[in-house]
Description:
This is 3-phosphoshikimate 1-carboxyvinyltransferase. By secondary structure, this protein is of the alpha/beta class. It has helices at 30-41, 56-67, 102-112, 133-142, 149-152, 176-186, 204-211, 241-253, 272-279, 324-333, 353-363, 394-403, 426-433, and strands at 21-25, 44-50, 71-74, 78-84, 96-97, 118-122, 145-148, 154-160, 164-165, 168-170, 189-190, 193-196, 215-219, 222-226, 234-236, 258-265, 283-292, 295-303, 311-312, 336-340, 367-371, 374-379, 386-389, 411-414.
Amino acid sequence: MDLLIKIGGINMAFKKAHYITGELSIPGDKSISHRGIMLAGITQGKSIIKNFLISQDTLSTINAMKALGVEINMDASRVEVKGRGLWGLKEPEDIINAGNSGTTLRLLSGILAGQSFLTIITGDASLRKRPMARIVAPLQEMGAKIEGRDNGRLAPLSIRGGNLMGIQYKSPISSAQVKSAILMAGLYATGETLVYEAPQSRDHTERMLKAFGGNIQYHNDAVILSPSELYPQKLEIPGDISSGAFFMVAAALLPGSHLRLKNIGLNPTRTGIIDVLRSMGAIIQLDNLRISGGEEIGDLIIEGCKLKGTVISKEIIPRLIDEIPIIAVAAALAEGKTIIRGAEELKYKESNRIAAMVNEMTKLGIKIKDLPDGMEIEGPNRIKGATVESYNDHRVAMSLAICGLFSEGSININNDQCIAVSFPDFYDKLKEIVK
Ligand SMILES: O=C(O)C1=C[C@@H](OP(=O)(O)O)[C@@H](O)[C@H](O)C1
Ligand SMILES: C=C(OP(=O)(O)O)C(=O)O
């Protein structure tokens, strides 16, 4: 079956897919790529990062670290970071712009909280609406001077740090960005820094700190960082399960499909999508399992079949937070009702992802309604063609594109160029496996 795609254009349209088949490597994990650049930048010496994700968000992190004086060179196969040591960053000459990337702004704020110089950090229109008090409050408690719009709740933030003290922080939300900002600042603090959260969010920062020589320990679900010196490393970034999720869902939904996603990151704090798809009846196998750079990695093999609805509740949400838009697509085509609760954090992402998915999937003829903390979807649905909006949110755009594989008419997605935020090759990869 032909696919009609305008790569990098404003609109795209697909024709209905019959099945998904093939083997794909998915680009490097976005969360781990950000962390690799930041931590390498504050070690003394040269780190090499392979399978780094080159996307708009991770380029925001690279540009920010360059503005702080770190030398970074990259080609298609690797990134070389010449770190300036924990205390060697320099005051940036201009405002740092994190673009669309919450991870860049929040994690970097933790590092900036440790610097005695002044930095002003901002982002695009979406990021300037996202909540920052969640990092500003604990970083101020550690001793950093931070101001921002709306009483420190919104970026731009101005940060002058230094002389930090470790804190014991019980996080009111499960957020890896909050936890990581505090741990980054903890590298500059006197005494121990402890962060407690439940349920646990992704733990890439803890693992990577350990890999760089950081003194990380766990006690009763809390992570504790003691003052540590970091050392340059060679890293290989696993494939991003959050990007792979779009193809996993497409393959799981189409009987006759057989898809292998190679070298995917399988850190258990990220694999909620596998558990949920299996609870919907999906056939997913793991192969070639190993550990690389302190992270679980392996191949995912997905066979297509008929899916059924499921219930997703609070405890699993941090393990699949970015996959909820594409899970909503799986639910739309599955038999029966799917209920997603405990996901209010979705309102504070690049767009309000509950409102975005409910509005746009409704335009496609899907029975979906919003809940205060999630959504309810009644399946199976016949998906009709329509023009839909991405809200400039990459995950919304890619989820709607997958709807296009199942729709009776063309789906045109306005502003789908935002896909380059996390997955510039999305359409090319999709084209390879759709038959
Ligand atoms: O730490 C990270 O790399 C991320 C953490 C999550 O955000 P929160 O920490 O806000 O939940 C996730 O949604 C985001 O895509 C990446
Ligand atoms: C929420 C996301 O990223 P960030 O918070 O870094 O903007 C995402 O990639 O879905």
